[in-house]
Structure formats: C-alpha cells, structure tokens
Structure prediction request, 112 residues.
Amino acid sequence: MRGINICVIGGNLGKDPEIKFTQGGVSVVKFPLALNSKDKEKKDITQWFNVVAFAGLAEICEPLSKGDEVVCHGSFVSRSWENDNGQKQTVYELHAREIIFVSVKKWKEKTQ
Prediction:
C-alpha cells in the first residue's frame, strides 16, 4: 500500500514569516506555528510546528505577522544533515499546499 501523508494544523504564527529566494529564484517562506491546546489535567500546552511554503503560496504570506491565525494543509517532511561537529541534525516541517488566513492583523487595521 502506498503511504498517505496529509497534515492539517491551525494556530498562531510564533514570529513574522521569513521570505527568501532559492538560487533559481523560487520564493520560500518559513514560519513557526503554535498549536495551543489543553492536556488531560486542563493545563495549557503549546506544540510548535515549522511551516514552509514555496512559490506563489510563499508570496501571498507577505501580510502575515507574529500572532496571526492560519490553518495550513500539506505534508509532513523531515530533513537531515550533519552539523559542523559531525552530529546528525533533523528538522521536521509541514510543507504547505494551502494556507487559510483566519485572522490577519494588517488586514484588520486597514478595515477599521
């Protein structure tokens, strides 16, 4: 059976998105997304996810800023490399195919 990799998370940006460009000129945006929930004892817990989007989807993220609410749909991806000390490092990311803007401060300010 072929695997299924679908991830949907909603939360608040932990910092302003960073938009960069690859050597080939493709835009890439990265931002941390905080998912707040409660555990069995009703204590607040926060889980952090790294979100990455490419090309046109990356470019429409320009108005986002820290604290804005979004829902991201995509696939969960891991990347590994060896650091300068020879230790293996791994990062896990949601590679977004869709980002839904739920609450964006910059848009609210313009409409008020």
In short: The beta strands are 7-13, 18-21, 27-38, 44-54, 69-82, 88-103. The mean pLDDT is 91. The radius of gyration is 16 Å.
